Amino acid sequence: MDFKASSVSKKLKRIGKTEALVAALLFSIFAYASYTFAAHSSGKSIFLCAVAGFILILSSALYRFFGSKVKEAASRIIFPVVFVVSGLLSVFFFPAGSVPDEPYHFYHAYEYSSALTGKDPTVVRVEDVPSFTYGEFLSSSIDNRGWEYAKNHAFDFSKDGNISLSELGDIDPKALSDVSLLSELPQVRIPASFGILTAKLLGLNHVWLFYAGRVFSFLFSALLIAIAVVITPVGKNIMMVVSLFPMTLQLLGSYSYDSATIGLTFLTIAFALRLIKGRGLVKPMELAGFVVLASLMAPCKAVYFGAALIALLIPAKRFESNRKCWLFRAFVFFAPIFSVLIVRASALSGAVSSDSSDGVSYYSLATILGDPLGSYVMLCRTVESLGTFWLVNVPGDSLGWFQQNTSFPDYVPMLFLLLLVLSSIRSKDDGQCLPISNRLFFAVLFLVCSVGVVLSLWLTWTESTDLFIQGVQGRYFIPLLPILVLALRMEGMSALYRMGFPLVACTSTLSMCGYAYIAATCAI
Q1: How are beta strands 162-164 and 360-361 bridged, if at all?
Q2: 257-277 vs 236-243: helix axis angle to the nearest 10?
Q3: Sorting pLDDT into bands at 50, 70 and 90, what band is 341?
C-alpha cells in the first residue's frame, strides 16, 4: 500500500506547472462547453470552445518541443502561432459590418483599391452591390442573420459587369465619398485594399472579397506586432497579452484605422526600447529607420505621437557625439509633428477653431481653455461617471457596436485586466525593468496621451450642452497600454519561472471562450 502511494506521488511530481495549467484550462473549456450546450444548444459556441481547446493543445505541444531548445520560445514561436490562429478566427467570426465604423472604412478601402489601379473609385462590380447597400450584407448587429447570410452566399458565382455608385438608389450615403490616392493614408489603407484587389483578380464573390480585405488587414498588423514582440528587450509579455484581448483581435481583423495604428504603435514602442537597451554605438540606419517609422505612425492618430518620444530616453553614450544625440532628438520630436501637420492639418484646425457643425454646437479649444475651472469639473465628472466603462472596455467588455447581448459577465474583463497586471511582473523570459526615471517618464507620457485621447473626442463628439465628454471608448487606450504597464513594472517584483506561455495560454483561452459566449447569446 505504501509502495503504491509512493509511486503515485512520484508520478504527480513529474507533472510540471505547465501541464497542470493546460489541464486546468482544458477542464475549464470543457465545463463551459457543457454549460453552453445545456443552456443554449449553440453549435457555434461548441465549435469555438473546440477551437479554444485545439489552440491550447497545439501551443502546449509546441512549447513542450521548443521550450528547452529555443530561447524565448513563447514570444518567438508560441505567440505568433496562437496569435494568427486566434486573429483569423476573429476575422471570420464577426459578421460583415459588425465592427464599429467598419462600413465607412470598407467603402474607403474598396474605392482606394480601385484608385491604386487607376480606375474610377465610384465604379464597383455588380457583384459587390450588396456590400454598398447597408443592411443587406453589411450590418451593425452580431446575430444569426449575418452568419447565415455569409454561409448561404459564400459559394455563389460572381456576377459580371460594373456599375457606378451614382446609379444605385438604395446606397449607403457613406459610400459616396471622394476617395483618391492622396486623400487616404497608404499605411492604413493599402493592406485591406490589397486584399480586395486580390479577391477581384481571383473573381471571388462579394462575401469572400469582404473577408479577404479583413485577412490582409489582420496579417499586416499581426506581422508588425509579432516583430515588435521579438525585438523589444522589455515588455514582451505585456504586448502578447494586450494583442490577445478580444477587443484587440476584433480591431486587428477589421477595416478600421485602429488595425494598422495598433501595429505601428507597438512596433514604434518596441523599436525605441531596443535602442534604449542596446549596447555600443547606435547605427545611423537604425536612427533613420526609427524616424521614418515614427513619421508613419503619428498621422494615423495624432494622440499616439507620444510613443515616438520614448526614443528621447536613448542614452547619450550610444551616440558618437552630443551634437548627433541632440540632432536625433530634434528629428524624433519634429518629424512626426511635421507629418501630422501635413496629413491632418485641416482636421486639426477644424477641431481647434470651429465650435459648430451641421447646425450643432460643439466644444472648441477656445471654449475649453476659456473656462478652465468648468472644463476641469467636466473632465473629473466624466472620469467619475464613465471611468469604469472605459476600463472594462479596454479588453472588450462589449464587442461590436456596444450590442447589449455581447456584454461579457462583469468578472470577465476583470480576469483580462488581472492577466495584464501579471504581465507586468518580471520573469525569466521577460526580466528587464526600466530605471525609475524612465518609468516616471512613461507614466507622464501615458497621462498626456490619455488626456489627448479624451480631448480629441471632447472637441469632435461633445456638444456644448453635454454634461459629459462623449465618444471616448476603452479601445482608444489599447496602443498606450505597453507604456502604462511598463511604467508600473517594479524591480522588486519578479517570478522565478517563465510566464510567457502561461499568459499566452490563459489570455487566448479566455478570449476564445468569450467568443463562444457571444455566439451563444447572439444566436437569435
Answers
A1: unpaired
A2: 170
A3: confident
